[in-house]
Each structure stands twice: as C-alpha cells, then as structure tokens.
Amino acid sequence: MNISIKLIYRLALVFSLALMPISCAEDTSAKKEKYEDLFHQVLDIHDEVMPKMGDISELSKELKTMADTSSTAEKYLKAEQKLQEADKLMMDWMHSFSDEFVKNKAKVQKMNNEELQEQIDALEEELSDVKAMQQAVNSSIENARALTK
Q1: Is 103 helix (H, G, I), strand (E, B) or coil?
Q2: What count of other Cβ atoms lies within 10 Å of the Cβ of residue 4?
Q3: How many CB atoms lie within 10 A of CB 139?
Q4: Residue 39 DSSP code
Q5: Does residue 112 come out as left (phi exceeding 0), alpha (psi in the -120 to 50 range) or beta?
Q6: Where do the DSSP E strands lie in 41-84?
Q7: Which of 38, 119, 146, 149 has the most other CB atoms within 10 Å of its CB?
Q8: Which of 145, 149, 125, 146 is nearest to 59 (CA)?
Q9: Per-position pLDDT tens, the chain of length 149
Q10: With contact defined as beta carbons under 8 Å apart, do 128 and 51 qualify?
C-alpha cells in the first residue's frame, strides 16, 4: 500500500507539472480585442476619407483654372496647395500604416501581452495621426469648395 500512495503522489506531481504551462499561459484575448477595435477605428476613418481623394483632384484642377483666369490668383493657389498637402498626407499615411500594421497583422495572434500593449500604444498614435489627416483633408476640401462656388 505504501508503494501505491507514493506512485499516486508522483503521478499527481507529474500531472500537475504537465498542466502548469497551460495554466500559466497568458490570456491575451482582451488585448487582442482592444487591438482589433483600434485597428478598425483607424480603418473606418481611412474608409471615410478615401473617396474624397477624387474630390481633391477635381477641386485642384478647378482652382488652377480659376487662378489662371483671376487677378487674385494667390488665394486659389494657396487653397490648391492645401489640397495637395492633404493628398500627400493621405498617401504618406496609407504607406506608413500598410508597412507598419497591415503587413504585420498576422503576427498579432502570436504576441504576448507586453508585445500587444506596444502595438496598442502604436495604434493609438496611429488613430491620432489618421484623425489629423482626416481633418486636413476635410478642411482643405471645405476651403476649396467655398472658393469654387
């Protein structure tokens, strides 16, 4: 009987040790969910702004034509320059976001909590950047439309 108790204790110990890595594994689901939420917030803003890129092109052409035929060309050229700056901001932002987040999205599933938090922090900055880009696009378009009416 003494041998069987020792055997039971040893089996229990081996079983406990075998389960330890499973029980100690990090729960990353909350951080992954926050990452996904931020990622989609950023994409939603992009998706709202992207169709306006055609407006920028059209308004830019209109402003150039108006500048060519106006004695007060400076205000049209300045508005057209703001449109071009907003367009460049959008293109630069898309390139950066794609390189930093879209191409590496699959790696997120394998990250630990610390790595996920770094990505969340970076996405929060990205959200701020995309909002600034959105504001630049919207304000440059509003200004151009006011001049072309």
Answers
A1: coil
A2: 8
A3: 12
A4: H
A5: beta
A6: none
A7: 119
A8: 145
A9: 556 776 666 766 666 656 555 445 568 889 999 999 999 999 999 999 999 999 999 999 999 999 999 888 999 999 999 999 999 999 999 999 998 888 888 888 889 999 999 999 999 999 999 999 999 999 999 999 999 98
A10: no
Measure the CA–CA gap between 37 and 67, rounded to whole angstroms.
44
**In the chain, what's the furthest Cα-to-Cα distance?**
108
Place of tokens 């987040």: 101
Q: Is the dihedral of CA 102, 107, 113, 118 positive or negative?
A: negative
Tell me the C-alpha distance between 50 and 97, whole Å: 14
Q: 79 near 147, Cβ under 8 Å?
A: yes
